[in-house]
Amino acid sequence: SLCRSFKASSESAPVDPGVQVSLKRAVAKKVVELIKPGMIVGLGTGSTASLAIEEMGKLIQKGKLKDVVGVGVSYQSRVLARQFGVKTADLNDVNTIDLAFDGADEVDSSMNLIKGGGAAHTMAKVVDTMAKQCVVIVDQSKIVSELGLTFPVPVEVLPQAISAVLRKLVALGGVPEIRSALRKDGPVITDLGNMVVDVRFSEAIKDPSALEKEINMIPGVVENGLFIGVANSVLVATQDGDDIQV
Ligand code: 5RP
To answer: A GO BP term, please (predicted)?
Structure first.
């Protein structure tokens, strides 16, 4: 199996931002080694997946990955794919995804994830669950012993239902906050035209699978960023002294 076993507690360590970029690049280079000619590849979003799209483009330019097609989970990944010379198709034009790679905001030792830092988790969940193989690529800072302590759960919400959904999220014991854009006055709007609510819980999430379903049962919720049983393997880049290992 491709699954790298890791001990959550020993590898979860903050990394220097300069080093973190090298870790992301290392894991990006590693994941593109799994792509074979003719594959339909799910292209994740975020800074780590973006590096993998770039590395994939480099291999294609060298003539190494004939007839590979990418299916982007976001506007960002589709634009990057075109920029780096990766041919793209719409999800509705393909019947299968052979391999999907994607980043994550938190990964626990059962390979459950929190995603959605880039507000693209709804389509990421569709593409990643459809893939025959979903490979998550992270640096060591994303490894946690329990989900929900450092990163809130992103929830994509229909704008027309925002107040009703906020009340239900509070009733579930969460502290929801509407995600706002950094340089604009107003909420973040997803590729699908919805809002994102980041929900913090006072404790670690004890039953992520139950919470994933409970949140999605709230009318007006489109999808949440808990990815339970979606990843087939996780590649983790770690720093060991000056050495970077994946
Ligand atoms: C986007 C995501 C990203 O994969 C996640 O935020 C990780 O991003 P990065 O690789 O930049 O840390 O879920 O919705």
So the answer is: D-ribose metabolic process
State which amino acid sits at residue 173. G
Distance from C-alpha of 125 to C-alpha of 42, rounded to nearest angstrom? 11
Output the average pLDDT for the chain: 93
Distance CA 106, CA 142 (A): 5
Answer whether 46 contacts ligand 1 (Cβ < 6 A): yes
CA distance 104 to 186: 25
Strand partners, 88: 70
Q: What percent of the chain has pLDDT over 90?
A: 88
76 C-beta closer than 6 A to ligand 1: no
**Is 117's C-beta closer than 6 angstroms to any atom of ligand 1?**
yes
CA distance linking residue 81 with residue 97, whole number of Å: 16
77 — phi, psi (to 5°)? Answer: -70, -30
**CA-to-CA separations, 129 to 23, 237, 241, in angstroms, rounded:** 26, 23, 36
